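Quick entry between incubations.
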Amino acid sequence: MAEPKEVNDGQFESEVLKAEVPVLVDFWAPWCGPCNMVAPITEELAEEYEGKVKFVKVNVDENPSTAGSYGIRAIPTLLVFKGGSPLSEIVGVRPKAEFKKHLDAAVE
Amino acid sequence: MKEYDIVIVGGGPAGLTAGLYAARARRKTIVLERTGTGGQIVLADLVENYPGFPDGIKGFELGQAMERQAKRYGTELHYVEATGLERRGDMHLVKTAEEEYLAKAVILTCGVEQNRMDVPGEAELTGKGVSYCATCDAAFFKGEVCAVVGAGDAGLSEGLFLTRYASKVYVVSDVVLASEIVQERAFANPKMQFILDHVVTEVLGQDRVEGLRLKNLTTAEESTLDVAGVFVFIGWHPGTDFLKGYLKMDEGGHIYVNHWMETEIAGLFAAGDVRVDSARQLVTAASDGATAAIRADHYISDHFPAK
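Done. Structure below.
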C-alpha cells in the first residue's frame, strides 16, 4: 500500500518544494478526528495516483513552523504543491471526487 | 453495475451499525460513504453519553471501532457520493458519482451536516480562523481571543474545549439551548463570556480572521468584536438534497419513517439523524441502524424467497 510519507519541517523543502511531481500535503494531527477520517481516502488516492502525485503528511503538532508559514489554522488542510508553491487548497473532510479534481488539475 | 442485498448510504453510527447487523444476517452489504466514516461523533473530543464507556471515549476512536466491527463480518465500504435513487422493478438503483449499485433493500443513513452562517467573510476565511471543529483547531489559537457561535450542547462543549488554549471565549447566540449539565460547566468557566441576544452578520479580516460584526436582536444595533478565531455550531441539516422529490420529507429535509424505519417505499429505509423525530444521539442512531437492518433482512426474506 502506497502510504503517505511523514515529512518534518527540516525535510519539507527537499521532499515537497523540490519534488519532481505535484505533492499533496496533508496537514494533520493524531488527536484530530476529521484528520483520521480523511486518512483512508488519501491512502486510496496515493495508490491511484502512484507515480503521478506524491503524498506526504505533516504533523502540525511536531512541525509548527511549516504549518505556520502556510497560514494553516484548521486541520485537516490539504495543500497541493506544484513547482515549489501551493496550487490549491482543501479544508476539512470532502468527497473523494473533489480531491481527484484538485489532483487532476495539478497533474495536467 | 454492482449488485448487493443491502446498500447503506452513509457511514456514520447508524450506517455502520446497520452494516454490522446486515452482515451478521449474512446479507451481502456495502456502505457508501461520501467523505469519511464516523459521522458527527468524529468531531467530539470525548463521548460521555454512550452506554458502556463510563470514562468516555474519543469520538473518532469509537467511529473507527464501529467501522472495524462492521467490516469484520463482511460489510464492504466504498468512498463515493450517492447522487440519486430510483426503482428498478423489485430492486432499488443507487446512483453515485462513479458506478451504480442495485440492491434488494436500501438503508439511508446519510446523517446531517453542520450549518454555515452564510454571512460575508465566512467561506473566504474558512481554515483562516473560521472553524467548525474546536477539538481539531483549538491548538492554533493559544493565548488568543476566540468566539463560539451557537449555544447548544455542541457550541458550549466545543467552547469549553477551546478554553484550554484560548485566553477568552465569547459565546455569541440568540439564546442558550444546551443541556443543564453543559450549561453549568460553561457558566462556571471564567474564560467563557456570553453575548446573548446577538447574531453574527459578518466575519471580518483579509487573510485571517480579525473580528466579527454583531447585531443586537432587540435594538438592531451593530457592533464589532475583535477575535482571532470563530467556531460555528449553529445546528445541522440533513444531507438529503439528492433525494428531493423522491421521498416524503419534512421542510428541513428529514425523511419520514415508521417505527420500523420504513419509508413509504417498499424496501427503502431511513435511520439515524436523517429521519424525522430523531433524538439525534449516538445511541439512538445506532439503535435506528439496527432496527432498519433487522427489518431489511426480514423484507428480503419475504420478497426475495428461495435464495
